[in-house]
């Protein structure tokens, strides 16, 4: 099996430097919008799958809910564990393996934390595992990029100056994947990483969900939960219920 790029890159301290300015306010607004739409009971149990350092999990717990978060990156989970409480726990786990079976009322997979595998088969394993984690009638929320718009408006070359590091970024679309080549110098060393995300369409997700016995109940196109438009929407947000 070819080396999985995300294992080394997501565990790199420079990954967290490059993406440290992600919009926390936008994330909180999204969670508020989801909370209003889903109307969870006060005793609902959540799972944040591929949670990174846990920013969504931490905010969900602050609303009074019980939540587990997991990620494959040991470094991210080590950082997230600093925020653990009685109602908030973090684990190292592969998304293709259920963390707990038939345990959660809601499973969230947010901010395009999906599509990193080489095959639709592995994607299906991940969807199946998330579904196994849900109770009957539990809800999966999948937040992915709108691949059609991303490909159409690809920002090919970009340089970001962060913490005295110059990140040179080149984006391309090849063989059904959006590739992001990242080069930079830090600590007197040259680094090169490549992110690779499969361009998963709405129809692909419909196939995954049908095989996992999930029924799509709503499709949104942004974090304000406006309707999905394949040409204009930034996001593809799916709300699906386990039958």
What is the assigned CATH homologous superfamily of the domain at 21-146 and 199-242? Vaccinia Virus protein VP39
Strand order of the largest sheet: 3-2-1-4-5-11-10
CATH-defined fold name of the domain at 21-146 and 199-242: Rossmann fold
Structural class computed from helices and strand pairing: alpha/beta
Q: Would you report the number of β strands?
A: 11
Shape: globular
Write the layout of secondary structure elements.
Elements lengths: L4 H7 L1 H6 L5 H15 L6 E5 L5 H8 L3 E6 L2 H7 L7 E5 L11 E6 L10 H14 E12 L1 H6 L4 E6 L2 E10 L2 E10 L2 E10 L3 H10 L2 E7 L14 E8 L1
Parallel strand pairs: 1-2, 1-4, 2-3, 4-5
Antiparallel strand pairs: 5-11, 6-7, 7-8, 8-9, 10-11
Helix pairs in contact: 3-4
Walk me through the structure.
Helix content is 30%, strand content 35%. The protein is of the alpha/beta class and 243 residues long. Helix 3 packs across helix 4 (55-62). Strand 8 and strand 9 (189-198) form a beta hairpin. The strands form 2 sheets. A 7-stranded mixed sheet has the order 3-2-1-4-5-11-10, sandwiched between helices. It has a domain at 21-146 and 199-242: Rossmann fold (3-Layer(aba) Sandwich). The chain contains 8 helices and 11 strands. The protein has helices spanning 5-11, 13-18, 24-38, 55-62, 74-80, 120-133, 147-152, 202-211; strands at residues 45-49, 66-71, 88-92, 104-109, 134-145, 157-162, 165-174, 177-186, 189-198, 214-220, 235-242. The mean pLDDT is 93.
